[in-house]
Write a structure and sequence with these properties.
The complex is a heterodimer of chains A (591) and B (103). Chain A is an alpha/beta fold. In chain A, 48% of the residues lie in helices and 8% in strands. Chain A has an eight-stranded mixed beta sheet. In chain A, helix 12 links the parallel strand 3 and strand 4. The N and C termini of chain A lie far apart (60 Å). Chain B is rod-shaped, with a radius of gyration of 25 Å. Chain B contains two helices and no strands. Chain B starts with a helix and ends in a 9-residue tail after the last helix. The chains are: A alpha/beta (591), B mainly alpha (103). The interface between A and B is large, with 46 and 43 residues.
């Protein structure tokens, strides 16, 4: 008896690799960023050179008017060529993704072809095959056909994305190739991006995070790529947008700053503010390199990846605003947002990103296997230090609290159907900022962690914070000078702190063990205040448990109290701290 | 030459130097545009990219010329001020304000 088993054809016959060279496109973008920097310099210089000593009179007026016109037009040219450069950067980024996807398809096809060849060989080798063997051959054939069909669909999708990426870049060039376009407000903006951005709900239009999310959901894939390339400032700060979109946009801006300001530095035309911006950009770049290279402690083949969630290096006179995450903010089950305190600016980005890796590792290593993302958030103007009068007041914390609440609303709005277990962590002055952000019903977090806190700002009791006292945690090293400034007891501390001491009985939060083995015999603002996120510490162990959603498993420490007959007492003062002790302070996998 | 005019000429020279620097930056920019290649881009984009680079090389040339004209105008202004100051100086030195036989 002859049995026919149809073997599916090996399709697609050819998987076309996306054309172009991303590295070469980056080089072209660098040329354009360099040009943008020189047009900027032309505009700045025309403006600055309008004042030439005491020169006055009709001739001077003529010179001044001519240079003012040159300044305005060259500023417009700078903006346009910068947009084109960003378009090329975004094209190169997308091209890398497309080539990677293509390589995956090639690998998939190779696997399918191997299985196909094996099936043919098995059929040819079979003599007097049983019904069961024939059925098995047919089943393998059906599976193969389905695999090839999926591959064809994936290839069609890839080709569409390749076409869209090329069309977008072509439109970018075409939107800036006449003088009138180049001088116009929207020079270098492709029509597809402009029309998308003019729809209701676009970020930067005053829309709420929920409206921004709905706007994004209504865009086609091509429109999304277009607005990322043309409006990275607005997409990169769009609360309610997926973190991945913000990250792509902010990386375009980062590449812009590094290339354009680097070229200006080479030309010797960098201003002091631009020098600070370039240094901030360098920090963001280095932090991302570290975060992108980081491997998961439980699965070394897994790279959780870095996310540049916020990038605004010129903010606050060059102190900058930035947020860098380790892990997938769009899908992680457990998300932590950590706000730093005084003396923090963008030059600390690599330091805090390293701490976020520590926290990620602690959470995963001692955790229940859930996915994790940890983010360092510096979205406010942190006071500069003890000599900065802003340190003594809660003004910056209050303003920063509003910014943090907006950031948390944005994170929440971006994941309406898949909410993360969200923990807000504040260190030092950042704990006061966090208390303002989570006070009352102001923001929607599941857990609040205050470490090294000089006071809980508007909250006199843990119940005053959004998630309620059961989900408010406090870490204080007994030697931390800053963390004993908050008020407690009936006399208080003469108002030198920033509200109630959250480790006190009065506040009644869950205090966890946070003593450092290297603690000094006296209180200080050094190690005792800055080691809460160090590896293999009690503090990091407990914070990791909270972030993982197991706050009930922390190692509790007794709260401080203030007896009527004497000064405040910290029962942790005499306890011997631990380090690297399983179940207490072991936070690192041995890799 | 009076001290005020010297100071003013120094300011004009500062302006001239600044514009000269800008002229050379824009000249380099025009060269960069001309030397840039669109060959790393896919064929479907190369035409638009090449047209863009060519036009912007021309715009950069224009900016170079503008900076050059500022340099020239400021030079001429400084020269005119200097020449006119010298001429006025000569007129006054030739003018004999004395009365009587000493004139």
């Amino acid at each position: 008896m002859t049995v026919t088993i149809e073997i599916p054809a090996s399709v697609p016959a050819r998987l076309e690799r996306p054309e172009g060279d991303a590295g070469g496109a980056d080089a072209l973008a660098t040329t354009l960023y360099t040009a943008a920097g020189r047009y900027e310099e032309f505009a700045d210089r025309s403006r600055e050179l309008q004042e030439l000593g005491s020169w006055a009179g009709v001739a001077y007026q003529g010179y001044k008017e001519a240079s003012a016109k040159a300044s305005g037009e060259h500023a417009a040219m700078a903006t346009t060529v910068r947009r084109v450069a960003r378009g090329v950067t975004a094209f190169a980024d997308t091209l890398r993704d497309l080539v990677s996807d293509h390589d995956d398809l090639v690998e998939r096809k190779r696997g399918l072809d191997d299985r196909r060849a094996q099936l043919i060989a098995d059929i040819n080798a079979a003599t007097d095959a049983t019904d069961n063997e024939i059925a098995a051959f047919r089943e393998r054939s059906v599976d193969l056909r389905a695999g090839y069909s999926d591959l064809v669909r994936a290839d069609d999708d890839l080709r569409r994305r390749v076409r869209e990426n090329e069309t977008l870049l072509r439109q970018v060039f075409e939107a800036a190739d006449t003088l009138s376009e180049s001088l116009s407000e929207d020079g270098g903006v492709p029509p597809i991006a402009e029309s998308a951005m003019n729809r209701p709900g676009a970020p930067g239009s005053g829309a709420s995070p929920e409206q921004v999310r709905r706007w994004w959901e209504g865009l086609s894939e091509a429109e999304r790529e277009a607005v990322i390339a043309a409006y990275p400032e607005r997409i990169g700060q769009g609360d309610g947008l997926p973190a991945d979109a913000r990250d792509q946009a902010n990386r375009v801006m980062l590449d812009d700053d590094l290339a354009r300001l680097g070229a200006k530095d080479d030309d010797g035309t960098l201003s002091e503010l631009e020098r600070r911006i370039l240094a901030n950009a360098g920090q963001a770049r280095d932090a991302l390199v570290n975060a992108d290279a980081y491997t998961d402690p439980l699965d070394p083949s897994l790279r959780p990846g870095g996310t540049l969630w916020l990038y605004d290096p010129a903010a606050y006179d060059g102190d900058g605003r930035v947020a860098v995450a380790v892990g997938d903010l769009d899908h992680a089950s457990d998300v932590a947002v950590m706000t730093p305190g005084i003396n923090t600016d963008m030059t600390d980005t690599t330091y805090y990103t390293d701490r976020m890796m520590n926290l990620y590792e602690s959470t995963r290593y001692n955790g229940d296997g859930s996915s994790v993302a940890t983010m360092f958030w510096l979205g406010y103007d942190a006071p500069h230090g003890p000599t900065d009068l802003a340190t003594l007041s809660e003004g910056r914390a209050e303003e920063g609290g509003r910014n943090l609440a907006d950031a948390i609303d944005g994170l929440r709005a971006s994941r309406p159907d898949d909410p993360a277990h969200l923990t807000a962590i504040g260190h030092s002055y950042g704990s006061t900022t966090t208390a303002y952000a989570t006070h009352g019903d102001a923001s929607d977090v599941d857990e609040v962690v205050l470490i090294g806190s000089p006071g809980a700002g508007p909250a006199g009791h843990a119940d005053d914070l959004g998630p309620g006292a059961d989900h408010v945690y406090v870490g204080r090293d007994s030697r931390d000078f800053v963390a004993v400034l908050g008020d407690e007891g009936w006399i208080g501390k003469l108002g030198i702190g920033l509200g109630t001491d959250p480790s006190s009985e009065d506040f009644d939060a869950h205090r966890f063990e946070a003593e450092d083995v290297d603690r000094s015999w006296h209180r200080n603002t050094g190690d005792a205040h800055s080691s809460y996120l160090d590896n293999d510490t009690e503090s990091l162990y407990n914070i990791g448990r909270i972030v993982d959603g197991h706050g009930g498993d922390i190692n509790e420490a007794p709260q401080s109290y203030d007896p009527w007959y004497g000064p405040a007492v910290d029962p942790e003062w005499d306890r011997d701290p631990t380090a690297d002790q399983p179940g207490r302070s072991d936070t690192t996998a041995r890799r | 030459m009076g001290s005020h005019l010297i100071w003013q000429l120094a300011s004009l020279r500062t302006g001239t130097d600044g514009w000269e620097d800008q002229e050379s930056l824009m000249d380099a920019t025009a060269r960069d545009f001309r030397n840039a290649s669109a060959s790393a881009l896919p064929p479907s984009v190369q035409g638009a990219a090449t047209a863009f680079l060519s036009r912007w090389a021309g715009y950069a040339d224009e900016s170079t010329a503008i900076a050059q004209r500022f340099v020239g105008a400021l030079h001429a202004t400084a020269d005119d001020y200097s020449t006119s100051d010298d001429a006025v100086d000569r007129q006054f030195s030739d003018l004999d304000g004395r009365l009587g036989p000493r004139r």
